[in-house]
Amino acid sequence: MIDLVALDIAGTTVEEHGLVYRALADTVTAAGGSANDVGRWMGADKREAIAAMLGRSEVDTEVQDFRARLAKHYADTPPTPMPGVPEALAVLRDNGIKVALTTGFDRTVVDGLLDVLGWQEGVLDAVVCVDDVEAGRPAPYMIHRAMELTGVRDVRRVLTAGDTTRDLEAGTNAGAGFVVGVLSGSQTAEQLGAARHTHLLPSVAEIPALIGLR
């Protein structure tokens, strides 16, 4: 039995056309850094990623720049739910399973994104942003915070899913019963398969069937 499904956002539940990584790369480049290794920061805290790529800890200005660039990208090309995801989330919740989103975005970005999607009410039971916890992925804290918010106490009854190896590492570190990689993002089955996991699926839309729901 599963009590909670904790899902990543970009590339997992939401199609945002890789715009977050374009904004991240452009931000770092504009600040004089190199964005050649932006791919290794998939699924990570974006502030942490910017700081690491620039080699310094004080990046408030660059974080604001990143938010502005991403907001413009999203205005020009609005994010949409991945195919079948709204229906899958509804099936899970109709069967008494809590649904939470966990993300390397901060609250400012996420609130705007949920507004665009129309997911502020009636779709989710909890949303945990990276600025809600002490450390982002691969730390397990966002998953554990989602458990707190939804009243779930047994991590073995938690399913986590995401499209990056950091998502899988966070699920494993949390001790989740199901750690699912989804192939709807930019990382391949080979890349995801290199991280510990219990399942690889084409998308989040397949999760209800995985746990015996229709």
Commentary on this structure:
By secondary structure, the chain is of the alpha/beta class. The protein is built from 9 helices and 8 strands. It has a 6-stranded parallel beta sheet. It has a two-stranded antiparallel ribbon with strand order 2-3. The two termini are 15 Å apart.
Q: Judging from the principal axes of the Cα atoms, what is the shape?
A: globular
Q: Largest beta sheet, briefly?
A: 6 strands, parallel
Helix and strand content put the structural class at alpha/beta
The assigned CATH architecture of the largest domain is 3-Layer(aba) Sandwich
The tally of strands reads: 8
CATH topology of the largest domain: Rossmann fold
Number of separate structural domains: 2
Helix content: 40-55%
Mean pLDDT: 94
- Spatially, the strands of the biggest sheet line up as 5-4-1-6-7-8
